[in-house]
Amino acid sequence: MNEPTLETKQIFQGRVISVQVDTVRLPNGGTSTREIVRHPGAVAVLALLEGRLLVVEQYRKPLERMQVEIPAGKLEPGEDPQEAALRELEEETGYKARSIRHLRSFSTSPGFAEEVIHLYAADDLEPTEVHLDEDEFLTCEAITLEQAERFMEEGKIFDAKTVLAVYMWKQFVRTGQF
């Protein structure tokens, strides 16, 4: 089953996303519209430093509050996700990973967006320098699993990528495998 596109109208083109409205043919022969957010994809890093999770705290305008999240960022056109993960980890936390591996890729909101996040695990970290983007204001810290679980209960950790990372970390602590 699919929904062939009959027409596409570009509604918005921004720095990070674009929005389009597609007219589609439904399986029953009728038509409908689909609002679609186009996004180049992103990476996120579950980085462990001496048994603690590296997180960044930053203000998230859509939620109008501070959030604690794992390091993450948008993919540049044609950029290799693993290279992007290494770049974002270093830029946001000031740590380089000597070891990194892909854990999962997942869709964030398949009902209206095409964004896919590639989640990596990084360890064997060495300190370097933080290189934040000019419009990026965040702080980095290393938290315990207990702190991460408490932050989820309190709503400080609220985004899907970080919640998934915390549960994967918890599984790793229990089983030795992600």
From TrEMBL:
Highest rank taxon of the organism: Bacteria
Any single GO molecular-function term of the entry would be: pyrophosphatase activity
Q: Which UniProt keywords apply?
A: Hydrolase
Q: Give the CC-aspect GO terms.
A: cytosol
**Coiled-coil residue windows:** none
The record, for InterPro entries, names:
Nudix_hydrolase, NUDIX_hydrolase-like_dom_sf, NUDIX_hydrolase_CS, NUDIX_hydrolase_dom
Fetch the SUPFAM superfamilies from UniProt. Nudix
Which stretches make up the Nudix hydrolase domain? Answer: 37-165
Required cofactor names: Mg(2+)
One of this protein's GO BP terms? nucleoside phosphate metabolic process
One of its Pfam families is: NUDIX
Give the similarity note. Answer: Belongs to the Nudix hydrolase family.
| Protein name per its UniProtKB record | NUDIX hydrolase
Q: Which organism does this sequence originate in?
A: Cohnella lubricantis
**Lineage summary:** Bacteria, Bacillati, Bacillota, Bacilli, Bacillales
